[in-house]
Amino acid sequence: MLTAFAEAFRGVAVIRLSGVLDARTYRQARDAVIKAALDQCTAVIVDVDDLEVPDDSGWAAFTSARWHVCQWPEVVIALACAKPAVHQRLARLSISRYVPVYASVAAATMAIGQGTCRYRRRAVMRVGPHESTIGAMRFFVCDHLTRWSMPTKAPVAHTVATILVENALRYTSNGCDLRLESADDDIVVAVSDESAAPAIRRERPPGGIPTGLDIVAVLCRSWGNNPTSRGKTVWAQIASDASITQLAALLR
């Protein structure tokens, strides 16, 4: 059984959930958050201190609610919990990457009011095995960064995405998955494919023009390979000061 008590304070909706969150009550919890987000509030804070979640999959109710409102009305959703063990659990499950978690309702309210509540956006695209899909991929990146009010980041982001996707298509005939994430000015591009062979940066001759992963290394704060059960994911975190001017100078 799950109960939800909702109240509003200065435009912020606070939902206090108690009881058991499982497969039977998953939709009830998710829909309670969505309903609050649609009710002309500026943010939704969910107090989960009195919530029992026997299975990790239950926590996905909050990321699911977040995806439902990410386009409209794009209301911030945050969790409040005083239990450090739950914070660790949510971090391990990557829930807190997309739904910020705070120690109390007051702490969440303050972060939202000060504009310091990190809100991560995410978009995923399946890229086919043919190079003709590169154009659609570039439009996908530019379109989402424009929606996220980051249009000046689009040229660098789609350059990095193009390099990672083209690299993946050399090693697989089944296409790959592109993931684009942002939080504040932070942008991450990740490409997953079914090849276990890691992406390797080749040594560039002295004075040679940067190509491929050389460009990624210059434009990104960090990048790397993560093995997966189906192959690997190559990710790159774009430097906040990376610009189209820097990119043009790099390619001269």
Rg, Cα atoms, Å: 21 Å
Secondary structural class? alpha/beta
Walk across the major sheet and give the strand order.
Answer: 1-2-3-4-5
Along the chain, the helix and strand elements come as EEHEHEHHEHEHHEEHEEH
Strand fraction equals 25-35%
Compute the average pLDDT. 86
Say how many strands there are. Answer: 10
- Uncertain spans, ≥5 residues at pLDDT below 50? none
Largest sheet properties:
5 strands, mixed
Helical proportion, percent range: 25-40%
Morphology: elongated
Distance between the termini: 64 Å
Individual helix count = 9
Characterize the structure shown:
It comes from Mycobacterium kubicae. This is STAS domain-containing protein. InterPro entries: Anti-sigma-factor_SerPK, HATPase_C_sf, STAS_dom, STAS_dom_sf. This protein has 252 residues and is α/β, with parallel strands linked by helices. The chain contains nine helices and ten strands. The strands form two sheets. A five-stranded mixed sheet has the order 1-2-3-4-5. Helix 2 links the parallel strand 3 and strand 4. The longest helix is centred in the middle third of the chain and has 16 residues. The termini are far apart. The mean pLDDT is 86.
